[in-house]
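[step 3/7] fold_predict: job queued, chain A
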Amino acid sequence: MEYNEKELVELFKETELKNVTAGYYSISCESLNGLQCLIGFHFEPRKKGFLNELEFFRTDYSDQIKSFDDFQSHFEKAFGNPTGKSKGNDGFDNYEWSINGIKIVHFVFDRFGPEEHMRIKYESTTPYKNNCGLVLSQRSLRVCNI
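[step 4/7] structure written:
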């Protein structure tokens, strides 16, 4: 099943899903076997689109190293070792997973100070399900048990 905005809102109707802007929602939650963070749900196109990207983030990065290591640890437990690694910014490496048309990236870049990014984007038509209840199929992400 591919989720549009209406279906996502219905799925999370008893939670505090926040409509940030057209085509973008966020929620504070526990996911990937214990990762405490916020998840952003991105739809493409922005209006009448389908869920195509998940963004994992926090509002407090007072300990950037601890945050980065926490995200990295949970993603490696869920998706295995990264398929790519390169030198990044501010002492952090860039990590990437490419799994059956899924692209996962984790990096820090300097916009107005260090900014951490952890994103999952589905870029294929081959269905994929990991061991944490995240199902990716055709043009969209399907979120289960987050």
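[step 5/7] annotate
The CA atoms of residues 32 and 77 lie 8 Å apart.
The longest strand covers residues 35-44.
exit 0
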